[in-house]
Amino acid sequence: MKPFTLIVLVVFGLVTAAVAVRLLGLAARTRKAPELLLGLSMLLPLVGYSIQVSSAVTRGGTPAPLAVEIGGLVVDTGFLTVAVFVWLVFRREEIWAQVLSFLLVIVGLAMPVVNHVVPWSNGLPSALWPRAVLRTICYGWAAVEALRYAALMRKRVRFGLAEPIVADRFVLWGVGHLCATLMLDGLTAGGALHVQQSRFADVFLVGGAAFGVPAMLAIGLSFFPPVAYVRYVERRLGAGEAS
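The structure corresponding to this sequence follows.
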């Protein structure tokens, strides 16, 4: 693994862990489901990927099948909490969103069974690409809904009905999940090519990691905005309100 990829993954993990701790702490105080779901959506993938990476390191590059199944289930659970969060927060009254969330959960729970029943091919888990599609849908849906709601919030800001930093947080959350989706897809493809000893593996690994940079910046700013950034957002969106 290239140093750039490793550094990005480590820093991304630290940022994600910090956000998860903050959200879970908030959930413990408020006893509300959205904060709990969002916190778990940050924490569980980090735990699941850590299980798989630790196994791969100790085994010389290829994780044990059991670590793949256990870690994959933990990661999938984290992604599925994103889908449930999006349904509860953005589309609670929409039947199609309820159905989509339910189907995603069913498919996610079936992934370990697929890995166990369907033979692996060339050292790659049989559920590798179905899982990638599932996780892309979960994060992609979150990104779309956040950016859609950000546009509505900006309209409210113009009329003084919402705070600029709150509207900006939805933009950051949407951009963060979009870039995280591209990062994970690139790393998944790179990891698969690495197992197959392809010379293009590093291209996808580095490319995927590159999307991790804006992802962690957006996620970090959405929950830990510096004072200078808050003032910048207030000036920028406040100017739109004044006009």
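The chain is about 85% helix and 0% strand.
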